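[agent] plan:
  1. take the single chain provided in the ticket
  2. run structure prediction with default settings
  3. attach structure tokens to the ticket
  4. add a short note for the reviewer (M.T.)
[agent] executing step 1
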Amino acid sequence: MNLPALRGHNEALLLDLLRGAGPTGLGRAELAARTGLTPQAVSKITARLGAEGLLAEAGRAASTGGKPRTLLRLAPQARHAVGVHLDRDELRAVRVDLAGTVLAATGGPLDFAAGPAEAVDAVVRVVARVADPAGPPLLGVGVAAPGPLNHRTGVMGRVTGFPGWEGFPLREVLRGRLGLPVLLDKDTNAGAAGEGAGAGAGAGPGASGAVTGPGGSPAGLPWAGAFGAAPRTSVYLHVGTGLGAGLRLGGRVYRGTRSAAGEFGHQVLLLDGPPCRCGARGCAEVLCLAAVARGDLPEAARILGEGAANLVALLDVDDVLLGGRVVAAAPETFVSGVRAVLTARALTPDPPTVSLAPRGVAEGAAELALSPFFDHT
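[agent] step 2 finished; step 3 output follows
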């Protein structure tokens, strides 16, 4: 047994539970019950975390006849992380605390076509602008970029329309320049990760998709959450300079074996339709963005809804979340338009919910940087 790894895993389980509990906090007995750890183990772990400044007291629980229990809460200010959205024409960065609260933000135009060197310099500058040299330690930097890319190796793929990026080791280059841990992922995956920020509220490891049994060790059955509910399946649909999807299955972002999941925009909706920049014809992306370009946002929403309906039928999705600058410019048009299509094409009596994504891509990228701290990897 790898004892240091197990200790780190158990610490992350408790931190995740306390993050989800918010300022109300949880007692040590509740932490033990929800993780399967012994009360003695919980006491030792919380003492260590408290000594590192990661926990604080949240008051006392009402007495049930004995001594009132001390409640513990996460100390969000103890660590920070940075999230960067590297888009095709703009750059945005945020600094967040452990609760995912945005503490600083900055951004500006970016020419992605100018190549990796200029983009790396721009990322280094925005990270410096949002960082607080006098503040708590930075856990790392999450960078969300257009795909395809390899999440595991941190190497860019053949981004449609930008061949100069193929094979560029963006993660390692930024790690060397920033001197911090860097996590690279697709912008749509960051959007899906942002939906899960702080989602542990009362649900324990299941909120992050962790599968645990007694003592917090891996188990054979999916975690059902504190209230017996399995993690919801959701998709994040992003409409900006491109069209893509982030998948959150069983509480975790799903990337696929080759980090290629979520190429939602390149499903063919119209055989022999207009050519798409990916080389195919009649893709959802080219149809949707053409409708946006001519100002027909209801039609763009309908096309987005048709693509979403295909995904819902394939994956039995609970929630559809919409984001990106095009959606932000006309949120009600897109929410109502997508909802109408999903309702009309529903194969079950209860179609999925449709709503705006609660966080932006940069915030989701910061959540990715926080993920290892809460054992969401």
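[agent] step 4 note for reviewer: The mean pLDDT is 87.
[agent] ticket updated
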